[in-house]
Amino acid sequence: MNISKLITFASGIVFIIILYLIIYYALKIMYKDVKTGGKKNTNPNLNKYGLEITKAGGNEDLEEESVMLIRGDVTIGRMDDNSIILSEPFVSGHHARVYAKNNTLYIEDLNSTNGIYVNEEKVEGKIKLTTGDEIKIGSAIFTVLRADKL
């Protein structure tokens, strides 16, 4: 009779250990999903771009050679709700939007009065950007950088 109680007790202990291991690994997997947003990032440089302020122009709040990473939409304009605020009268309230989509960077003119220029050519609507492109809005000039160059 003692042997059957011992076997039952040992089976219960083994069951509890297995149950705790399953819970531990499930929580570990859920933590990784929450931490990374459920996305597997095989290339950490994917969708990582930056805008370097090459020339501040008439914008006192901009610091030349500083870099802003592109994470989501970056809006540029005179209004306080923009990511990059330009204080010039030649810049519209919401002048331009820069964003990454499918590992490609775009800039879009938001129907500004004076337009945007990429590599000294006026942009209509939106266009793709590449590393080294120069964006001119008002008297400010930005250079597109890739994450591995930051």
Offer a few descriptive terms.
about 150 residues, alpha+beta, 6-stranded antiparallel sheet, 5-stranded mixed sheet, 1 helix
Describe this structure in words.
The chain has a six-stranded antiparallel beta sheet, with no helix packed on it. A hairpin with a 2-residue loop joins strand 5 (96-101) and strand 6. It has 150 residues and is an alpha+beta fold. It has one helix and eleven strands. Helices cover 23% and strands 32% of the residues. It is rod-shaped and about 95 Å long. Mean pLDDT is 87; it is low at 42-46.
Number of strand segments: 11
Radius of gyration: 27 Å
Instruction: Please state how the strands of the largest beta sheet are arranged side by side.
Output: 2-1-11-10-7-8
**Which residues sit in consecutive blocks of at least 5 with pLDDT less than 50?**
42-46
Question: If you average the pLDDT, what whole number results?
Answer: 87
Strand content: 25-35%
- Shape, per Cα inertia axes: rod-shaped
Q: What characterizes the major β-sheet?
A: 6 strands, antiparallel
User: Count the helices. How many?
Assistant: 1
- Ends: how far apart? 73 Å
Order of helices and strands: HEEEEEEEEEEE
Instruction: Return the structural class.
Output: alpha+beta
Percent of residues in helices comes to 10-25%
Pfam families: FHA (PF00498)
Keywords: Membrane, Transmembrane, Transmembrane helix
InterPro entries: Cell_Proc_Reg/RNA_Proc, FHA_dom, SMAD_FHA_dom_sf
Protein name: FHA domain-containing protein
How would you summarize this macromolecular structure in one to three sentences?
The protein is an alpha+beta fold. It has one helix at residues 2-36; strands at 49-55, 67-70, 74-77, 84-85, 96-101, 104-109, 117-118, 121-122, 126-129, 134-137, 140-146. Helices cover 23% and strands 32% of the residues.
